[in-house]
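Question (not urgent): is this output format expected?
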Amino acid sequence: MQVFKQGNKLGQLMWLPVIMAAVLAAVWFAAKGNTTAVHADEPLIVYVSSSSAAVLPNGLAVADEDILALDANTGTWSLFFDGSEFGLKSQDINALEILDDGSLLLSFDQTNSVVPGLGTIKDSDIVKFTPDTPGNYSSGAFTLYMDGSDIGLTTLGEDIDALAIADNGDLLISTFGTAKVKDANGQVLKAADKDLLRLHLTQIGDVTAGVWSLYFDGSDVALTQTSEDIDGAWYDTANGDLLLSTLGRVVVNGLRGTKADIFTPARHLYPVQTRPVHLARMYSGQGQLRI
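Got this back:
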């Protein structure tokens, strides 16, 4: 799960890690052959929620309900959000978005998760954590942001495992398996685990309403293998880049990567188009994002 940060502005990305924005632009430009680093003085912070309990190299013990921050420039880990402090013990976070005001959008891996103040939450739901003080995650409260069953996410394969926000505020969602939802015309829209759906919410909370459309078709960039399931996504509103991470190994048109890498498709592929194009690696986390 990943999210990016430029200065004090929080962005978002979902994977096992979560990254903050701006320096990825520098890494991306360098990879594209640009000799001038952009915002090279900005720290690259990768936010990570592990799939299990772990002890990091610096001795920090973490659980799957926590969110960690990795300074990719120094290799320094820190605890960003302690889920156990808010009653999320063993509620595995597997999708994350950080809003501009510092609030967190979270989805959980378990079919049924118990969230304080909300009760049982499904893996197709999204909850919002609002800190009492913006930027301070020592206190705050949960509210239900999206009830997945209200908008057609009802099967086990429709577990949300990637979450981002588009430039107009729409949700970008990928699921663990194949999702079948209704589009604006009431027709069945089928999306694979390598695709991104766009959800234009018209009502949030206990009674959720919205309109689905296909945003990114993974087959357009030859994402076909089980390991190429999208499990992290972030839309950079500053420059329009869509950043992706995958469940495992990626081999596409000569590009090879792992679940620790971040990729970007050509911009003309989203919202959805039909012609294939190469992916480009924006950032390699090999050796840094393994926890």
